[in-house]
Input
Amino acid sequence: MSYSEQQARAYMDTIIEMAKLDHDEYFEQAHEMPLEVCHRSDWQSVSCQLFPSEFLILLSTGGPAVRITGDLDRGTPINARIEHQDWGTGWTPLFLSDDEQEHLRRFCDVFCFEMS
Output
């Protein structure tokens, strides 16, 4: 297992452990983890209102770097994947079980991706 994969696995393990927290503690700890939370919209006509269609939650940078990406439907995450990379390598998704995938999606639900 590469160092970047170990780092992504450590973040995933932390997200799973957070499920033991009460709602307020979970919310607070989730918001303290990311370095940055972003969203972007699809290509649309100039006259159309923009709605976010993808999100990115940056957890760490450098070597290794870890991020969570996914798609949005009306500001709600509909899927999520945790990815890692090291110097000179591309972003690689971490394999997740169905249970881990549900924990990751729940983590992403904490963040607001609506347009203001």
Summary: The chain is about 30% helix and 30% strand. The longest strand covers residues 52-60. The chain has a mean pLDDT of 90. The beta strands are 36-41, 52-60, 65-73, 76-77, 81-85, 92-93.
